[in-house]
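The authors assume throughout that readers already know how a fold can be written as discrete tokens. For illustration, here is how one protein appears when written out as sequence plus structure tokens:
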Amino acid sequence: MIDKRIMILAIFLVSLFAISAVSAGDNATADEQSYNAKIVAKDLNEEYDEINGNTIIFSIKDLNGKPIKDAKPTVTYDNKKVKAVYDDDQYFSEKQGTYYLDRDPEIGMHKVKITLNTSKYQAKPVFMNVKITKVTPKLTLKKYVTTDNRYAVMKATVKDKYGDTIDGGIVKFKVNAKTYSVKVKDGVAVKKIKLKAKTYTYRATFTSKYCKTKTSTSKLYIKKTKKYYTLKITNPKIKKTFKVKLPYKQYVKILNAKNRNKFGYADVDTGIKRPPEWGGGHYHVGLSTKDEYHTYHGYDLADYVFLRASSYLCLKKVNLYTANF
């Protein structure tokens, strides 16, 4: 006779094997679940776009690569459910089958999970990392030249890498141990200030919630106010030096043209006649900036003290920022 204990043990082992076989079969079914769609997404790493916003997109295709426009995926953004919209007009992508999130991401790191499990389509879940960084701005400062009884102008222009102006944020100007905070409007911050005659270095620091901090420096050239400014130039052909007194208003006119990067011109009649055989007329001495006439004769587009009569006779290149007359 077979021992009853052996029989019971045999029945137990057969039952255990059967249970194990069923469990393995169940797991195989779960692991080998067939999908009829595929979610295609890439991690996003962009600078913050204040004008257009940053768009999170992904696409859904069937297993043959054909775009699916009615997939109805489920999406979470930082563990919160958000709406995914089909890009029917292909505004955000030139490809069909593209979806975008109805969410404009803020600066920082974000997690996106995309799942598709409907009665019509099933796909393997996909995870996206979204990194939005602060904009790296370009801060440009302007040089400025004026006199000590007029306002000097500190001007900062803020743009992004595409050359578009950045609106908002603060520029802190620092000059002569004082700091001035100015809001940026349409990419520009301006501060007017009166200073004593001297050359100053001013510093500007731009800060914004959406931009990296940027600092730059430039110069302010403050000239002493005088009733007249003496211009002097020597004509080497006749070995004669001519000297005139340029009135204050004329001098400031030229400085203002320099600040605007525009053509400026002023001259004074010396009262000295030019010999008729040399063309006649009086000798004039003057000051000019950005006079394109000089470039036609091979000179740089710069600042000049000039001598002329019926035509230009000679030029002396100067720098209106640093020259003192």
Q: What stands out?
A: Residues 1-32 have pLDDT under 50 and may be disordered. Residues 135 and 211 are 4 Å apart (CA to CA). The helical segments are 4-31, 248-260, 292-295. The two ends are 132 Å apart (CA to CA).
